[in-house]
C-alpha cells in the first residue's frame, strides 16, 4: 500500500509538471504576429475531452452518439478559415463512434461526422483509431493512434493523431484522467466569397502541428462508476497557411471574363484552454454523460473579426 501511494503521488506530480510545461508552451506561442487567416480549432473534436485509459464497454462492441451545440454559429471556428461543420455555419455537431474489441487489450474505433465536413459532405468517416491498454500497479494506461482516412484524392492522411492517456484511482471516491498528444495537420479548404457581381474562390491549405492536453478529476458517486467530473483541456497549434484567390470579372464592353490570381503565405500560432464539467451516469448496458464546456482563455490574431469560442454543451450516449 505504501508503494502504491508513493506511485500515485509520483504520477500526480509528473502530471502536474507536464501540465505546467504545456500551459507554458501555450502561453508562449500566444506572442505571435498578426496574419490574415488561420486553421480553426475543432470544438467537435472527438479526442482529448473525455478520454480515459480504462475500457468503458464490456462486450465485443459499443455504439456511442454525441450531440453538441454552440451558443452562436461564430463559435464554430477560431479564425478566417472554416472548419469541421463550421464551413456551413452550423451550430450543431453530431457524431457516431463505433467501437470494436480486437483483443483483451486492443480496441478499434470508427468515428463518423454526421454534421458536415470541410469537403461539403453531410456524412463522412472522419477518423479511424486503434487503442492499446495496459495496467501497472493498479494504474491504467493507454496509447491511441488515429488517422483521418480522407478519400478526396489526397496522398497520405490529412491528419494523424497520437495520444497517451492515464487513469488513476486516487481514493475510493476520486479518480483522475490525463491525456497528452500531438497531431500532424495537412488540411485543405475551399471557400467562395462574393462582392457585388464579383465572385472569388479561395483555396487554403493549413500545414502544421497541434499539441493537446487534458486533465480531469472525477468524484465517484456509486459503485458502477457514475461520477461528477471537472476537466481542463488545452490546445496549442502552429501552422503554415497557404492561400490562393481566383477572381473572374466581366470586362466592360468586352465579351468573356478576365481571370486574376493572387497567392500569399502566413505563419500562424494560436492557443485555447477549455474548462469542461458534467455528470456521467454509468450502467452495465449504457452510459449517459451531459456536459458543458467554457473557453477559459484564447489567443488568436486580433485582426480576425468574430469567430470566438463560446459556450459549448453536449450529450454523450453509449450503448454497450
Question: Would you mind describing this structure in some detail?
Answer:
This protein has a single domain, classed as Outer membrane phospholipase (ompla), Chain C (Beta Barrel), CATH 2.40.230. The protein contains one helix and twelve strands. The chain has one helix spanning 2-28, and strands at residues 61-70, 92-103, 106-113, 124-136, 139-147, 159-171, 174-195, 198-220, 227-250, 257-283, 286-299, 312-319. It has a twelve-stranded antiparallel barrel with strand order 1-2-3-4-5-6-7-8-9-10-11-12. The protein starts with a helix and ends with a strand.
Can I get a quick summary?
With 320 residues, the chain is mainly beta. The chain has one helix and twelve strands, in the order αββββββββββββ. It has one domain (2-319): Outer membrane phospholipase (ompla), Chain C.
Can you lay out the helices and strands and say which pair or pack?
Layout: H1 2-28, E1 61-70, E2 92-103, E3 106-113, E4 124-136, E5 139-147, E6 159-171, E7 174-195, E8 198-220, E9 227-250, E10 257-283, E11 286-299, E12 312-319
Amino acid at each position: 500500500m505504501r508503494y502504491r501511494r508513493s506511485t500515485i503521488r509520483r504520477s500526480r506530480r509528473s502530471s502536474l509538471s507536464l501540465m505546467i510545461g504545456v500551459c507554458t508552451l501555450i502561453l508562449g506561442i500566444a506572442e505571435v504576429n498578426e496574419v490574415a487567416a488561420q486553421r480553426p480549432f475543432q470544438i467537435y473534436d472527438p479526442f482529448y475531452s473525455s478520454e480515459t485509459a480504462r475500457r468503458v464497454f464490456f462486450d465485443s462492441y459499443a455504439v456511442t452518439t454525441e450531440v453538441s451545440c454552440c451558443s452562436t454559429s461564430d463559435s464554430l471556428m477560431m479564425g478566417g478559415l472554416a472548419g469541421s461543420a463550421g464551413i456551413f455555419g452550423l451550430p450543431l455537431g453530431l457524431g457516431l463512434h463505433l467501437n470494436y474489441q480486437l483483443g483483451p487489450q486492443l480496441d478499434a474505433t470508427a468515428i463518423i461526422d454526421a454534421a458536415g465536413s470541410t469537403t461539403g459532405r453531410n456524412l463522412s468517416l472522419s477518423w479511424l483509431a486503434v487503442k492499446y491498454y495496459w495496467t501497472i500497479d493498479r494504474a491504467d494506461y493507454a496509447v491511441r493512434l488515429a488517422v483521418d482516412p480522407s478519400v478526396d484524392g489526397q496522398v497520405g492522411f490529412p491528419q494523424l493523431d497520437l495520444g497517451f492517456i492515464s487513469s488513476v484511482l486516487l481514493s475510493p471516491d476520486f479518480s483522475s484522467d490525463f491525456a497528452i498528444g500531438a497531431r500532424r495537420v495537412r488540411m485543405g479548404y475551399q471557400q467562395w466569397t462574393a462582392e457585388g457581381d464579383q465572385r472569388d474562390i479561395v483555396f487554403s491549405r493549413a500545414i502544421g502541428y497541434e499539441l493537446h492536453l487534458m486533465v480531469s478529476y472525477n468524484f465517484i458517486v456509486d459503485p458502477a462508476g457514475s461520477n461528477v467530473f471537472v476537466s481542463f483541456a488545452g490546445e496549442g497549434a502552429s501552422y503554415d497557411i497557404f492561400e490562393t484567390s481566383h477572381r473572374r470579372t466581366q470586362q466592360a464592353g468586352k465579351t468573356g471574363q478576365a481571370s486574376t490570381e493572387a497567392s500569399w503565405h502566413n505563419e500562424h500560432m494560436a492557443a485555447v484552454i477549455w474548462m469542461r464539467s458534467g455528470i456521467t451516469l454509468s450502467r452495465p448496458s449504457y452510459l449517459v454523460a451531459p456536459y458543458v464546456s467554457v473557453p477559459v482563455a484564447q489567443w488568436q490574431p486580433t485582426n480576425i473579426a468574430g469567430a470566438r469560442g463560446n459556450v459549448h454543451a453536449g450529450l454523450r450516449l453509449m450503448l454497450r
